[in-house]
Amino acid sequence: MNDAPATITSSSTTAFLGATIPSLFLSVPNMECRQTHDFVSNPFLEFSAERHPTLANRVRPVISGNGVVDGYIKMEMFHIGGDNASPAEPKLGTFRFRRQGTVVSPDDGGPFGAGIPLLPPNFSTGMKLDRTDEKLWFFHLVAYCPGRMLLSDNYWCKEVVAIAVKDDCARHALLAFATAYVLDYEPTEEMRKRANHHYRTAVQLLDQALNRENTYTVGQDDGIVVAMILMLSSDIVNWESRRPKGKEPLWLEGSRAARLILDRADPGHRYWKPQNVQSSAARIGNANWIASIEICAQPVTALSEENTKTLFLWLLWGSKVDAHKIQGVTGVCPKLLHIFSQITHLAAFLKKDPKSIVVPEAASRIQDRLANFWQWSDASPGHPSTAALMESCVLDKDGKVSDSVRVTELSAHSWIPAAEIYLHMRVFRKPRSHPHVLRSLKVLVQCVKRLPCTGKLFTSQSPFFPVFLMAVASYREEDREVARQWFEVVLGEAQCRSSVPPVWTAIQKLWHWLDKEVKEQPYDEEQLVGDRQAWWEDMVDELVKESGVLSLV
């Protein structure tokens, strides 16, 4: 694909394209940029006294009769006595975990220490964890981490755990986050108090760190960003106790605060050329996860240049090959994630200047790039086209792929037609019935139908965000049925706590509103883009009014 800039007709066009599609003229930030932020405020102080004031409002997942939890967390629960008669009311101290065929016993090297090949003996020595905290620690390792990704470089198990071992704030945040899940299986007052203790301690340590200058030094931000990721992730999955829908969600405020730290500690300041920038594995994982939280929220929030002008340039540091590598923490490559932020920025600019002729030019450039977009991973060099990927899939009797490589490829590829749909509908303002939208929707539906929604191959790499965009674009019943089946399986028996329930509720309300309020009007190709009906913005207003800002990660 030709990456040369399009014909530039004026200096203003050059400046706009350079800002909106920075990979055309990508350059590292200058040193003065590092001084633009004051100390970052602690967004988590509001809930520092009691993160879990009560257990009464928790919506607990349905536990299957055999004790298997096989969704975004992976474990098998059974009582020490072997009695599975009452699996719906397990106690953490009275059941064991089974992982990959290995029974983990309280007597096998610690509460849940056996059968974890990634860890050396006595791994937790030196952390001064009591028995309950050891249970929480190994819950993260045994149950949470296996549900994060299929790629071997598991950020949550390697980078996050390694940082939490040596960083007090990150460790307390990890233990607090583990209780966000454990409280579903041991809803006791003792565990609730333990959860609040760890959260409160993490918030206090975070506050101290945010007021130290060295926190913002290049290479010194990993621990504090990991702690913030764990705390805001707790708000994402504890959706019953979020702020009221009229207020900015804590998870979004937290991700923006973490992004400011990533900006300040950007290693790009130390290099002359973007392709030479070196980042640690922790920095890459932190950057991709924080960016994904905010970027995936932008399609369901009102347009504002202030909130879209930050273009997450640090996602693109390194070579072009690096930028196209699928990251397990998000299930997509940084370049494609970055394109979503560019699309939102174009929509915001068009709202400000409806007569702009530069926005359609920039949007067309993005459309061209998506048409030939390539991604790869450590497990696969990728495919030259959608057709080649589909031909490589071997489907089981249920029409699903059954190997981790194809699941990784299909999950990542689904973001491409999702980006096309988002570009067509929010920037070009095309209706859902437009042939371009339907063409991209067809590819996205193909990808989603072939992906498992439960079992060992279902992890957080699953394309939750593309599935949401698929649901929005679907007005025909056969397409909506694909989305409906995905949500119903993900929320069905043997599943677990996640951010999915409020999104599924919102989608069902949204379908009713779209059918009633958004008419599929004829599309005039000659009409100025800024003069077309901005129906997506009307939809966002309705969505925020009825459901608040949705987390789509």
Automatic annotation (TrEMBL):
It comes from the Eukaryota. Transmembrane segments: none annotated. InterPro entries: Fun_TF. It is found in: Nucleus. GO terms for cellular component: nucleus. The keyword DNA-binding applies. The keyword DNA-binding applies. GO terms for molecular function: DNA binding. Keywords: DNA-binding, Nucleus, Transcription, Transcription regulation, Zinc. This is Fungal-specific transcription factor domain-containing protein. It comes from Lasiosphaeria miniovina.
